[in-house]
Amino acid sequence: MIVKPTQHVFAHLSGQDDNLGDSALRLAYLEALRGAGRHVHVYLGEATGDFTAGFTPASDLTFYDARGEWAQAEAAAARPVHAFNAGEINPRTGHFPVPRRAAECARVLDAGGALIFAGIGIKNVDTLHGVVFDPVMRDASVMSWRDRGSRDGAGFGDFAPDWAYSEGRAVDEWAAAGDRPLIAVTMRFDRAWPGDQWLADVRAFAAATQTRIVTVAQVARDAPRAVRLAEALGGEYVMPSSMRHDVLDDYVRAVYRQSLAVISDRAHGLIIGATEGAYPIGSGSDPHKISRLLTAVGLGDLVGRYEQLGEFAEQFESHLPSLAPAVHSAREDIVRLTARIHAAMDAVA
Residue 70: is its pLDDT beyond 60? Predict the structure, then answer.
């Protein structure tokens, strides 16, 4: 019997150290890269134990502390697979990726390997003037953005939902709306305070739905704002026992599984909430990015600026039945993207 050699996959999966959404989407991406006959070499950047706690060691994974060692291992591998980091990018005037990274990608293709760009999104599609996307991205084995706006802004590739939609409980395991006693609120620390009318609208929404307000912070830097919001809303700040991402992920999902809705200007607060059956209401001072990520799966109708929250609360009941079909469809799209990635890998194995 002929045994195929192990295929070596090189994934750069760094993210913001205290941001649960950054590790959540990359864990889902990593899962898509794994499989029989593959070994994934993972570089997580200069992450602390909080971020890395979510990445469980396994026999098919090797983690690297230094990017140079990770890159050397890739250079020594025959027909490697290079998985470009998923998540948000913020390209500046000039080339993206930067020449050194673009050359790294090109070497993989020149060596007969596979190049994967999957699940990347542009922070602000209105600031792309002067940005030149390197041709290696168009030559990639898979080139998939995480929202239509990013794809249209770049002008090439296709798109599928953010990787984080693939996580969470199956929709048929969700608690019914009537068995969800909470409204969860989680807001960014670095945006304008939403104001008195917004606070009144949240309280009115909770009263109308006979729910209790709780605030959470799934990004450590958001904790002071969560505390202040709880005080202003007459709610409760609920705090995990640790900000390690494995502990934090379990905790916030448990909160969202009890929540009828999640109100947030954090994209992955909305996404993680949606995957646990809490309807995402996007409310922010600059909601363009969250709108794109929710619209990608058909959940963008209740996303807007602070002053629209009262209107969204009035529309909420009519939109609630759309949540389960939207999340189910998003997960099917991600399954298809994963299949494309596996096919690209198999083609060079």
Answer: yes
